[in-house]
Amino acid sequence: MLVPVIGLEIHLQLKTKTKMFCACSAHEAAAPNANVCPVCTGQPGTLPVPNEQAIRFGIRMGLALNCAIAPHSKFDRKHYFYPDLPKAYQISQYDLPIAEKGFVMVGSHRIGITRAHLEEDAAKNLHGADGKTYVDFNRAGTPLIEMVTDPDFASPEEAKAFLQDLRLMARYLGVSDADMEKGQMRCDANVSLREVDDAGNIVGPKFHPKTEIKNINSFRNVERALQFELKRQAELWAAGSPPSVTTTRGWDDATQGTKEQRVKEAEGDYRYFPEPDIPALELAKIAEEERARMPELPAARRARFVDEYGLKADDAKQICEDPALSEFTEQVFSELGEWTKANGGATEKQKAANLVAGWLLSKLGGLLLERNVDVGSMKIDAENFAEFISLLASNKLSSSAGMTVLTEMLETGADPSDVMEAKRLGNIEDASVIAEIVDRVLGNNPEIVERYRAGKKELIQVLVGQVMKETEGAVDAKIARNMLLVKLES
Ligand code: ADP
Ligand code: ZN
Ligand code: MG
User: How far apart are CA 422 and CA 366, in angstroms?
Assistant: First the structure.
């Protein structure tokens, strides 16, 4: 039987203010060639100066991937000739990457991380309608981290799940927005097949020549490109001629297939040597500083939201997909802590957790979508949202009135109790107040009362309706009904 062998190489743009080795802005510019200087355009006699923030971001990413951070590291030159590379070499890292030998869990499958290193990005070639090619150097010299996994993925789906986790990790760490469509995260996927017996033992060589697939620009296409390539290779195996050399193929979105590009150059062709203009990097101290600053990562946070706050696994997953929403949720639960403690026990806690998940994800989520506002910049703060949940949990506020209150909170940033008071939306719980209203309704509807007493029992519904109308729905209908029954039957 043939099984997939898959390894990924991922480039991630680091979200620094300036480029990797010069002071040019690393942000998108309004016009081509606006963010350029003699260093990033490769003028003779210029000297690169490493960006400390980029090194810190790289280390943070390495720590998140459970890598060992190299105490001593350095930069190297990787040579190749292409119009988007003005120096004709790229400053990268060769034998002493900042991080290596890590792992990530995808579900319960451990995926090894071979290494992670820092490098500078190339410029962008733009092919004009006039048949000429133009070069935009804004991207030249912006910082990248390249991460290489071991060939451990067992399926295209697993590779895709890993990339989605990686994106989320980068966002939690604040090192990159990792948007694949914008090219902030780019992935090359390596794939081959290997033969195993029924017990899963490898038959023959452990590794066979692989295909490296380039230009994949979305999660979905990573999965599709791998599926396409696995099928193509399986057909070659079936025909008795499995791939005999490593090749590079490009993913073509239009045809949803891969096309052969070239036979890969050997490493020797790059003429790597140590970058003589940059001193060696001593990373032990800043690695410790970054370790101390590591935030909680998505996987840990998801698990804790379930254990500590009683959220359902699916809800916790959905909340943690958005770092800002997960932060907000954290604050809401910490505000609700006092309330759940004061109101006792596990059932109250569970009730609060269900309310938080429901109101955050579907109700508030919907309102935010309609208004195109995100959690990070909305007017509702965690304290007010927690109070809102506690009002619902203690039945002081009905869920239909809750929607009105929440909408108002979102529009004005107001306190939920203030909104309830101003709009008279609170539930009426005081029995003597309800009794008064019931008496008034009975007094105003003598004819209905008479017909009820004469046997038309279903008219109770009309009276309940009257009570609800009087109070704009602020009385629990069941309580109103019971009180009406008591008065009518006495
Ligand atoms: P190259 O020499 O082509 O750069 P590397 O050994 O550096 O190859 O590995 C590059 C990527 O390819 C890594 O992600 C690795 O896990 C993966 N890889 C290596 N060999 C194979 C193979 N036979 N099948 C699938 N993936 C592989
Ligand atoms: Zn520059
Ligand atoms: Mg390699």
Answer: 24
